[in-house]
Amino acid sequence: MSTxxxxxxxxxxxxxxxxxxxxxxxxxxxxxxxxxxxxxxxVPPTRHRGLPSPYLTLILTLDEPLTIAAHPDxxxxxxxxxxxxxxxxxxxxxxxxxxxxxGVQIALDPLGARVLLGLPAGALAGADLAAQDVLGPSVAxxxxxxxxxxxxxxxxxVVDAWLLDRARADPRAGVRLHPEVRHAWRLLAATGGxxxxxxxxxxxxxxxxxxxxRFAAExxxxxxxxxxxxxxxxTRRGLASYGAAEGRLARIAVDRGYFDxxxxxxxxxxxxxxxxxxxxAEERRNIQSGQHPSE
Length: 295
Prior knowledge:
Mean pLDDT: 89
Strand order of the largest sheet: 1-2-9-4-7-10
Shape: globular
Helix content: 40-55%
Radius of gyration: 19 Å
Number of strands: 10
Distance between the termini: 22 Å
Largest sheet: 6 strands, antiparallel
Strand content: 15-25%
């Protein structure tokens, strides 16, 4: 089932470092991007930045809670979560990892939020919430089944079954989404966030203002902010894949649609809270183990 790379536990050292990428069931594709399974033990304590992404985040933990030291919304207090759902955001979360962590992270397409979560992604804009408060008692049941499942393929199958049940509960949920918003989101994604708002509005046949208001209500970001996040997400994935060797940052900046490297650096600092080189240094272990840090 897995389509990504992962590592097996390191034997004889007391260190466990697993990272596995999985694809959702065919009926969920278009609603869910991917599943990321992770388990680490005996690694140095660290801090992970949960970066802005064009996907909502749903995390189901396995052995210990997820510790959020700082949310994208600084007004939200730090806390521990057995399961978390987070909306689109333009500032990083800070996650404390005390040498161990485990769980399954689910990347949810914002246009699938009505179907899988029962509410538009706009209702979760900038927020991190206990998944039980959004999705109800089914979260406790899926956590129990997830923790009892054998191996990553079995865990991903549990998540598939749970999300498919949720999708079938209200088969007309997706009909409530304006087709113009769907088209605008797809254009933003297809162009890597480089299409201008005026052109985007013209493509969907709405005024700039109407597009901005309807889009933000549904997705949780304005079209301009969504474009920034999509472009940033492509940028940090390029950095994770190619690194920051001499000349590489400038090439990535041009390829991702920035004016120059300085423009990219400013955007990265604004959205990640640090320069690209520092983020790469912080995430080196995750990148090398096959994980591709996201929200």
